[in-house]
Design goal:
Elements: H1 4-18, E1 31-37, E2 42-50, E3 56-64, H2 67-80, H3 85-100, H4 125-143, E4 150-152
Parallel strand pairs: 1-4
Antiparallel strand pairs: 1-2, 2-3
């Protein structure tokens, strides 16, 4: 017998993999980073527009990868729009805790919303880096990674 919640989660991930949101070019981006997961070949280019008040007003990604990687990037872009940079960084930490099985700070789980779909990833350690690639790339973009430097999941969970 299948678990309806698991089926729903699987359906959401597949939907975002097949029809990624915010996929494409972003002219006028204020922040950019490229990322790769050398273990499985996932690659991402991430662009953000952050306004003078520190709000992510738009975000888009391009790249290729597995279903988990693309779905994570797609859902991440939806979660970031309209958020202040400090909230985006906090969301990175909470998502990282979710997928690695670390303790999520009290009262912070509500930040995740649909991202909770990735809670089962921690049961598959090889897939954690797929789920977190877009997030490390986003963090690098906000940190002002040097042009030409590619963010990698190696050394990161």
């Amino acid at each position: 017998m299948s678990d309806p919640l698991y089926d729903l989660y699987q359906e959401l991930i597949l939907d975002h993999q097949k029809n990624p949101r915010n996929f494409g070019d972003l002219p006028g981006a204020t922040h950019h980073a490229d990322g790769t997961n050398p273990l499985c070949g996932d690659v991402i280019a991430l662009d953000l527009i952050v306004d003078a008040q520190g709000v992510v007003t738009d975000v888009k990604f391009k790249g290729s990868g597995c279903a988990i990687s693309r779905a994570s990037a797609s859902l991440m872009t939806q979660a970031l729009k309209g958020k202040k940079i400090d909230v985006a960084r906090e969301l990175f930490e909470v998502f990282h805790a979710l997928v690695t099985g670390s303790k999520i700070p009290k009262g912070k789980e509500e930040l995740l919303g649909k991202l909770k779909v990735f809670s089962g990833i921690r049961e598959f350690p090889a897939r954690v880096k797929c789920a977190i690639l877009a997030w490390h790339t986003m963090k690098a973009a906000l940190d002002g990674v040097q042009d030409g430097k590619v963010v990698t999941t190696e050394g990161n969970e």
